[in-house]
Amino acid sequence: MHVLHTRVDTRSDGFRANREQNLAAIDKLQQLLARARAGGGEKYVARHVKRGKLLPRERVDLLLDRDSPFLEVAPLAGCHEGGIVPGGSIVAGVGWVNGVPCAISASDATVQGGAVNPWGLARGTRLAEIGWENELPEVHLIESAGADLPRQAELFVPGGGGFRHITRRSARQLPTVALVFGSCTAGGAYIPGMSDYVVMVEEQAYMYLAGPPLVKMATGEVVDDEALGGAAMHSRVSGVSDWLARDERHAIALGRQIVGSLGWEGRGPGPHGRGEEPLYDPEELLGIASADVKVPFDVREVIARVVDGSAFLEFKPAYGSTLVCGWAEIGGYRIGILGNNGVLFAESANKGAQFVELCNQSHTPLLFLQNITGFMVGRQAEESGIIKAGAKMINAVSNSTVPAITLMIGGSYGAGNYAMMGRAYRPRFLFSWPNHKIAVMGPEQLAGVLDLVKREAAARKGEAVDEQQLAMMKQMLAGKVELESTCWSSTGRLWDDGVIDPRDTRDVLILALRTVHTAPVEGTQAYGTFRH
After folding, report:
1. Distance separating alpha carbons of residues 305 and 281, to the nearest angstrom
2. What three-state secondary structure class fits 277?
3. Residues 106, 251: contact at Cβ < 8 Å?
4. Number of Cβ within a 10 Å radius of residue 298
């Protein structure tokens, strides 16, 4: 493979300005993450600890292998809504337990008793997708008051899909382990009830469809928590629990033993190479990535700081130059990379479609580095067949079956988002850098389109344009689009699996590749009709 040579001037004003602005964005990221990790706040965290209970992240840390990584998924879910704690009041991600990659979730009882809110449900559903697609065992660390009742209309119908998911996993021989640390009420009781393995903590865990107050209202029966649904009763009488743990640490130890006893082995290929570090410092990514998405930068400079040995075999380097395609290794795993170096022309799209086909032919996973304003427009572009070329690339991306990972390293606009494996095209993982912007088009372009439409409409009616009103409408639209297109808005909506520090990109991609290689990696040669 060819070793990429950098042309970055780390002393330039542009490099320094990008670095400064990206560091400021990373500071904001850390502040939001700190808020999410703070749970329900100091008062409720202190009350939880005073009861002798471990915090959810402490439970996760004890479950994981010592010094092993945890790839957290959607940690800022709901962060764009000021009234919801970022993260949706759960912890969710992929971690290694007795050497087995597992999809792990933990209720945060410091937030409304661990009640499920819409963003917690969305985050749990996303983790379930990751577990299903990559064939991972699931471990749930549960202490939940059930649904957040004031928001039941947003939760009731979609929430039922979680129980169906667990039973379908079991039928597919994908095990689910439930460790119960506190109250599991109503729908919360069905998660362990549907699981393959259940552990309950003695004199601390309770599980019932209706708590003592509701039972008294419904039947007149007076019963306490322990007799109604305590860990001892479910372990010795009902049989809902399979193990009775002395305390939380014992429950977690049992969970680790259960996962270890599964004899779980991944069915995907292991790494091919030795995983050499890149030749260039990942710290330089902060100066390379443009803080202003309108300012282009060479995607090869990113590739050189992410792939093993900075080695990259570029495909069709002299053709369709605005889309860089080629093969490399990351952490020893073979990968096909598609990265934007400008707007997509017909040649670029044709090249991308062919490259996706080749990677499927050789069962090679794909990495999409998105920094795209969309497809080229105008008379010349239409005559060159931009629509059919774009359709061809989207066809190839849509039908590709090898695992795909998408990284948003700049802008993502229009159909370029689709062709480069945006969220709607179901990549196995999708992460963003803090400079990321996403929308149908930029705010200036949208405001300009509105201006033209309003003026043409007024001309057809023979009316004068109210310039003041039009200027206000354009300003409001541009401001709204600008706010909604930030990485904070998109990550809050789970349009990605997390905003990451660019310097952590290689480590995050290696964890993602380790995860996707748990399942078989198989390409396809079956596509829809290509328009020629």
Report:
1. 6
2. coil
3. no
4. 16
Q: How far is it, in rounded angstroms, from Cα 198 to Cα 23?
A: 44
401 CB neighbour count, 10 Å cutoff: 14
pLDDT, one tens digit per residue, over 336-356 is 999 999 999 999 999 999 999
What DSSP assignment string belongs to 291-325?
SSTTS---HHHHHHTTSGGGEEEEESTTSSTTEEE
Nearest 5°: the CA angle 297, 77, 52 is 130
DSSP 53-64: PPPHHHHHHHHS
Beta strands in 73-137 (DSSP E): 90-97, 100-107
Q: pLDDT tens, 373-398?
A: 989 888 999 989 999 999 999 999 99
For 69-86, b/e burial (b = at least 16 CB within 10 A) is: bbbbbbbbbbbbeeebbb
Residue 120 has pLDDT above 60, yes or no: yes
The DSSP call for residue 266 is -
Query: What digits encode the pLDDT tens for the residues 34-61?
Result: 988 988 888 989 999 999 999 999 999 9
Burial zone of 486 (CB within 10 Å; 0-12 exposed, 13-18 middle, 19+ buried): buried
Kindly report the number of other CB atoms within 10 A of residue 229's CB atom. Answer: 26
Could you please report the per-residue DSSP string of 386-398? HHHHHHHHHHHHH
Determine phi and psi for 438, rounding to 5 degrees.
Answer: -145, 135
The helices-and-strands tally (H runs, E runs) of the chain is 20, 16
Measure the CA–CA gap between 285 and 306, rounded to whole angstroms.
10
Query: What's the burial of 406, exposed, middle or buried (CB within 10 Å: 0-12/13-18/19+)?
Result: buried
Helical H segments across 406-531, by residue range: 416-419, 443-461, 467-484, 487-492, 505-516
Task: Measure the CA dihedral 47/53/55/60, to 10°.
Answer: -170
> Which tens digits make up the pLDDT trace of 81-96?
765 666 888 999 999 9
Amino acid at position 178, single letter: A
Compute the radius of gyration of the chain from its Cα atoms: 25
C-alpha 244/C-alpha 107 separation (Å) is 20
Q: State pLDDT tens for residues 411-455.
A: 999 899 999 999 999 999 999 999 999 987 677 777 777 778 888
DSSP class of residue 423 equals: G
DSSP 65: P
Q: What's the pLDDT tens digit per position in 296-305?
A: 999 999 999 9
Query: CA 356 to CA 530: how far, in whole Å?
Result: 14
